């Protein structure tokens, strides 16, 4: 197996970000439309995340970014990734994302509707962050540390494994030509 290196994996992450850009647009639009959007988007957002990061990985061996960069995710022994392993790979980011989303939904609902609607998107975001429960900052910090640690870990091991690969017993390899 030829392991996918840092830049190929970073490129896949960037392609996935681009693929999810329409969802970012929906979030911006919805956030500007009503303060209820954050709460209403929790379940659909979670389901889309699971579909993208678990279902597509099991079905095709990777996310669109991984596939576009000529890589695939397999078990450590080279066999196809299992559903359980795909979920374990995504579980930490999923949990942290759900907690931050729930905190922002809670804070949005604490803001009076007329005040919320009088603000621009950036002002709404800043106000929701300021009004979030006290644990939000710790969870948000943990999520940032997790994401950066993923990339740093790839740099310092021969198999180019990220933390989630160690948890799930997976590795990202280059597809055979």
Give a description of the structure.
- By secondary structure, the chain is mainly alpha-helical.
- The protein has one domain.
- Helix content is 71%, strand content 6%.
- It has ten helices and two strands, in the order αααααβαααααβ.
- It has a two-stranded antiparallel sheet.
- α6 packs antiparallel against α9.
- The longest helix has 28 residues, at 83-110.
- The radius of gyration is 18 Å and the shape is elongated.
- 21% of the residues are buried.
- The mean pLDDT is 95.
Structural class: mainly alpha
Could you give the distance between the termini? 12 Å
Number of strands: 2
Rg on CA atoms, Å: 18 Å
Q: Which bin fits the share of residues in helices?
A: over 70%
The number of domains: 1
Q: How is the largest sheet built, in terms of strand order?
A: 1-2
Report the total helices: 10
Report the sheet with the most strands, covering strand number, pairing sense and barrel closure.
Answer: 2 strands, antiparallel
Q: How much beta, percentage-wise?
A: 5-15%
Overall pLDDT metric = 95
Low-confidence stretches: none
Shape: elongated
Helix and strand succession? HHHHHEHHHHHE
């Amino acid at each position: 197996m030829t392991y996918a290196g840092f830049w190929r994996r970073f490129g896949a992450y960037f392609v996935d970000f681009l693929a999810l850009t329409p969802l970012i647009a929906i979030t911006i639009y919805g956030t500007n439309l009503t303060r209820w959007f954050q709460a209403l988007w929790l379940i659909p957002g979670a389901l889309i995340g699971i579909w993208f990061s678990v279902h597509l990985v099991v079905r095709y061996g990777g996310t669109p970014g991984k596939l576009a960069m000529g890589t695939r995710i397999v078990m450590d022994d080279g066999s196809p990734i299992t559903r359980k392993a795909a979920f374990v790979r995504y579980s930490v980011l999923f949990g942290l994302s759900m907690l931050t989303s729930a905190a922002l939904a809670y804070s949005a609902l604490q803001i009076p509707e007329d005040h919320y609607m009088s603000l621009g998107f950036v002002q709404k975001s800043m106000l929701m962050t300021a009004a979030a429960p006290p644990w939000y900052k710790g969870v948000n910090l943990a999520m940032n540390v997790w994401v950066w640690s993923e990339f740093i870990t790839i740099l310092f091991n021969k198999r180019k494994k990220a933390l989630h690969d160690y948890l799930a017993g997976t590795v990202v390899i280059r597809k055979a030509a």
